[in-house]
Hints:
The complex is a heterodimer. Chain A has 12 helices and 4 strands. By secondary structure, chain A is mostly helical. Chain A has one domain: ABC transporter involved in vitamin B12 uptake, BtuC (Orthogonal Bundle). In chain A, helix 1 (3-32) runs antiparallel to helix 8. Mean pLDDT of chain A is 91; it is low at 324-328. Chain B has a domain at 4-88 and 156-234: Rossmann fold (3-Layer(aba) Sandwich). Chain B has 9 helices and 10 strands. Chain B has helices at 44-51, 96-103, 110-123, 125-129, 140-152, 170-185, 197-203, 221-226, 228-234, and strands spanning 4-15, 18-29, 33-38, 58-63, 66-67, 81-84, 158-162, 189-194, 206-211, 214-220. A 6-stranded mixed sheet of chain B has the order 6-7-8-3-9-10, with helices on both faces. In chain B, strands 2-1-4-5 form a 4-stranded antiparallel sheet, covered by helices on one side. In chain B, a hairpin with a 2-residue loop joins strand 4 (58-63) and strand 5. In chain B, helix 2 (96-103) runs parallel beside helix 5 (140-152) and helix 5 (140-152) runs parallel beside helix 6 (170-185). The interface between A and B is medium-sized, with 23 and 34 residues.
Amino acid sequence: MDTLLQQIINGLTTGSVYAVVALGYTMVYGVIQLINFAHGEVVMIGAMVAFSVITALAGSGLPPLVIVLAGVMAAIPSCMLMGYLLERAAYRPLRHAPRLAPLITAIGMSIVLQHLALLVWGRNPLAFPQIVDNHVFGIGGAAISSVQIVIILLSLTMMAGLSWFVYRTRFGIAIRATAENVDVAGLMGVNADRVIAATFVIGAGLGAVAGVMYGSYYGIAHYTMGFSLGLKAFSAAVLGGIGNIAGAMLGGILLGLVEALGTGYVGELTDLCGWPIAHGWLAGQCADGGNFVLFGSNYQDVFAFLMLILVLVLRPSGLLGERVSERA
Amino acid sequence: MAQALLEALNLQVHYGGIAAVKGISFAVEQGEMVCLIGANGAGKTSTLKALARMIPSRGEIHYGNRRIETLPSHELIGKGLALVPEGRGVFARLTVAENLLMGAYHRNDANGIAVDLARIYDLLPRLKERSSQVAGTLSGGEQQMLAIGRALMGRPKLLLLDEPSMGLAPLMVQKVFEVVQKIAAEGVTILLVEQNARLALEVCSRGYVMESGLITLADSSVALLADSRVRTAYLGE
Lengths: 328, 237
C-alpha cells in the first residue's frame, strides 16, 4: 500500500471538512471579530439531527440516497436556526460590549449546546446506520471510498458556491464591505444586523453539511465531537488567516493533509530502531525486526495544534491574512 | 426663504461626559451649498455624524418634511441623504467598481445603476481606468474621488461632505473641489465641512463657523470672508 498517496486522500477528505467548518469561523470573525466557539457544537448538532433522521428512516424501505438526503435536509435548517438564535440571543446584546464578553459568552454557549445535545441524544454515540454501500476504489496502490469521493466533491462544491456568493452577488459584496467598515457600509444602506445574522446562518448551514460528512466518514456522531472538530477548524481558519475566506479553505485542506501525513509517518519516523542510536538494551528491543516507537498514530490530534502554535509564532496573520492597507 | 431641506434644532452630541456639540441650530435649503468651518475639535465631524445617524445625539433633525433623529443610519441613503465620511472610508479590499456598486446598494433599478455608473466614470475617468483594482491601492486623491463617486451612486438629494481636502496635495484638492462644484451645479444640495476655510467659503454661498461645539457666526460667504474675526482665526491674516 502506498502510504503517501493514501494519506493524501485521507487528508483531503478530513481537510475539506475542516475547510467547510473553518468558513463558519472565518466569516463571523471577518464581520464582527468574534471567535464563535459554539460553531463546533452547531456542526455537532447537524450531525446528530441528521443521524437521528437517518436512523428513523433506515427501516422505511426508501432508497438510501433519499434517506441520507432527508437527514441532511433536516440538519441544514436546524443548524441555520441555531446559528440565528445564537447570534440573536447571545451575541447581539453584547455587540458593543468589550470584546472579552462575547468571547466568554461563546465558550459558554458551546458548553450549553453540548449539554443540550447530551440531554437530547444521551451520552452514547449514535452510529451511522449501514444503509449505504460504501464502495472502495483502488487508485495507484491506495484506496478511496465512495464516501470520501462524495465528501471531497461536496465540500469543493460548497466552497465554490460560497465564493461565488461572497464575491459575485450584491449581498456578498455587502458582507465584505461590512467586514471592512460596518459604519460606512451602514451609510450605503446596508443593515449590519441583517448581514451579521446572515454570516451566522450561512456558516451554520455549511457546518450542518460538514457535520454530517464528518460523522458519516467516521461512522459515528457524539455530543462531544464538535469540540475537537471545532478546534481544528478554528486552527485551520487561523492558519489561512482568520477573516479571510480563501484562507479558511486553504488552511482547512492544508491542516487535513498535515494531520494525515503526520499520523501516517510519525510512527515510522519516531521508531528509535531506525535511528543510529540502537545500543545496549535498545539494541535488544530492536532485534528480530522489533521496534521502539516513541509516538504512534494516536498522536493524530497533536499535529493540528502544533501547526496552530507554529503559525501563531511565525506568522500570526496567517498564510493569506495580509491586509491591503488603506492609504492616507 | 425657500423650504429648508435639512434643519437641525438644538443638536447636541456627547461622548461619555464630554460635550462635543453643545446645542446648535442651522438649516440648509434645497439646492444650496453651505459650509461648516472651524478648527480641529470644534465639533464639525460630530455634527455630520449625528446628521447621518452614525452617533447618538439630542435635539431635532428635520430632513425634507420628516424627523430623522430616530432612524437608523442605513435607512437614510434611501431617503436621499448621503455622507462622504472623514478619511474617505473607501472599502480598501473591494475593487473600485464594487465600491461604486455599494453606493447603489439600496437601489433596485439595475438599468438606472448602470446609467449612473457610466455617468460617474465619465465624471471621474481615473476611476474607470482603475475599476477592477482594489481601492486600497489608489492614491489619497483617487480614494476621495471614489468616496464621492460612491455617494453619488446613491442619487443623493443632500450630500454631506466631511473634509474632502484632508491629506491631499493642493492640485488634488483643487480637482476634488471642481468635482464638488459640478455636483452642486447638477442640483444636489451640499453641506460641506472643511478646515480649509478659505477654500470652503469660496465655493459655498453661506457658511457657519463652529467653535468649541457652538455656532459662533452664520452669514453669507462674502460677509464671512470679509469678517475680521474669521480673517484672523481661520484665514491666517
